[in-house]
Amino acid sequence: MGKPTGFLDYPRQEGVCRPPLERLKDFNEFHVPLSEQQQKKQGARCMDCGVPFCQSGTMMNGMVSGCPLHNLIPEMNDFVWRGNWEQAYHRLSLTHCLPEFTGRVCPALCEAACTCGVHDEAVCTKENERQVIEYAFHHGLVSGEAPAVRTGKRIAIVGSGPAGLAAALRLNQRGHSVSIYERNDRPGGLLRYGIPNMKLEKSIIDRRIRLMEASGICFHCGIDVGKDISGRELLSQYDRVLLSCGASKPRDLNVPGRDAKGIYFAVDFLTQVTRFLTDNNFEKVPYHLAKDKRVLVIGGGDTGNDCVGTVLRLGATSVLQLEMMPALPDRRTSSNPWPEWPRIRKTDYGQQEATALFGADPRRYQTTVVGFSKNNQGEVCSATLTALEPHLEHGRTRMIPVPGSEETISIDLVLIAAGFLGSEDYVADSFGISLDSRGNVAADSKTYHTSNERVFAAGDVRRGQSLVVWAIEEGQNAARAIDKSLMGYSNL
């Protein structure tokens, strides 16, 4: 423990964010990290407590408390405080192979469980992690070398999101030959096309992909497994197959007028924006998608917030974001004590930007859409909303429409960010494997085996829509299971 009184001597300090009205002018990352010297003080705040819940990844009251990857957080923070960045990186890499992503987009489960957070503010572990990995990249510590010995085993990974990338890194490290199949034109999965550039610049993904290719991992983009190539063909060419293709079947709205033009699933819209920006080297902006339009975003989660931030950058004249559930409290309640994940309301960057631009939070709670109207060109021109109220039935809360609360608003663009319903059926069908009751690929939570002993599944395709940190954890665990199935043991 570098500084026993660090949590008393130094207040929590995060890197600054560019002002909302300034950052709306571009799609660049808006979070500016601290200097190395400032970050060292944040490492000193880690008190090396007796029970580090930050790294526990333990289920509490139905939610996870602490890091699912079980990163050795007090040890890493101690190295940060001492300025020993290389050792901090090596300690972090023991449990985590892709910290440049979680250091940017993770909701920081570790910080929610930090002991300092009981009476004060938590340690800035997420920003410490980001500083560590950026130091490692800048000083050439992140290896792109191929393994010295190859095992002769070949593995195909379907999907290049965080689960697929994590599994590929670990399996290649072991000496297996890994090929990744991605249906999009570029690798990265939802890291690339589901998360806007201002949260995760695509150059960060490209930097990692280049190192993976240099180490011998092969990427095959523009190939949709189950359509362009069958599961049977992959199994004939590879010893094992890992499905890590996400839970990409979006939840739709079954309401009148849904077929109107101008209504999109959120990820489809975000993909369209990112692809246009990338194809034009970020020198042109697809203003035509939202400029001067009144936008309705349906869904109050992270994807809905990303939609808000995106359409504001595209020149939308107004944004309304709907959330079916009641607003969460601003502070923990007595029924939600530390170290449980705090069920409190979060105002994210998109909502902050909308508030700065329009003078009000764009969110409306306990509200849903019951229908759309079209103009003569078949384009959406209005939406009918209704208020909802909670009713407890058989121990579960249902949101019921309030009679007489209907309201019609004028809109030009609708983005549906209501979550996902599981994996694409055609992928599982192609391999002849079964799905579970939620529409995800059925696979064991410890061995990651599907109903075909040579096919494994990890990430959202197995567990359903979740966090990047969970996908990385599942990818690493699946790599260990695949390695053991091939070699009889695993040292991963």
Backbone CA Rg: 23 Å
User: β content, as a range?
Assistant: 15-25%
The major β-sheet equals:
5 strands, parallel
How many helices? The count is 18
Average pLDDT number: 96
- The percent range for helix content is 25-40%
CATH class of the largest domain: Alpha Beta
- What would CATH call the architecture of the largest domain? 3-Layer(bba) Sandwich
Q: Are there runs of 5+ residues with pLDDT below 50, and where?
A: none
- Major sheet strand order: 7-6-5-8-18
N-to-C span: 28 Å
Shape: globular
CATH superfamily of the largest domain: FAD/NAD(P)-binding domain
Key attributes of the depicted protein:
18 helices; 5-stranded parallel beta sheet; 17% strand; 34% helix; 492 residues; FAD/NAD(P)-binding domain; Fumarate Reductase Iron-sulfur Protein, Chain B, domain 2; globular
